[in-house]
Specification:
The protein has 207 residues and is an alpha/beta fold. It is built from seven helices and seven strands, in the order βββααβαααβαββα. It has a single domain (2-204), classed as Peroxisomal Thiolase, Chain A, domain 1. The protein has helices at residues 31-41, 54-68, 90-101, 110-113, 119-129, 145-157, 197-204, and strands at residues 2-11, 14-17, 20-24, 79-85, 135-139, 163-171, 176-185. A hairpin with a 4-residue loop joins β6 and β7.
Amino acid sequence: MLQITAYCHIKKNKVYLNGKLLYEDSGADSLKTFAVKVFRHFKFKYPKFFKMDEISKLGFLAAEILLSNTVEQIVNADVGIVFSNSQSTLVTDKTFQESISDRENFFPSPSVFVYTLPNIMIGEISIRNKFMGENAFFIFERFNAEYLCNHINLLNSAGKLTHCLGGWVDQSAEDYEAFLYFTSPGEKENLLPGHNAEEVRKLYELI
């Protein structure tokens, strides 16, 4: 049986861990600006961060904040990642499309093209944390707690993972939002409620 050990929200230029506000910057005028400020505020050290597209930075930061505050020792090979959002990598896709649409100013960039797949975000987090478990990325119109929980629990019952980083990392031209949570096995008094759609939905709607 999986239980939720911690969760993180990043939205509206604010960062929350387990429902507690850790950082905010109302002056940031974009996700790009805010992400860099969060990275520097928490003094993370990972040079590759600055090469990522914006949505990968968002997911990376939520994972860093969440995992750096998870004191439990985990077996890296058994950690899975299951993410979702509503628009895949549409913002990055449009950036790349603009670079190839003008024949007179043709400058396609491999560094942009590589981020036109949503599971690249999972890859960045996996490389950073040496996670080698099962992973998946799903596209839904809105956050789908039922599907997410069912998939993670199925992977757990099939022995494909013992721990999992799950959630929603979404970006549009106007807004962004990250909600990630971490699950671990067992029934311990210090853990949050069990991993089911109702409890996950409550945490998602908390902020």
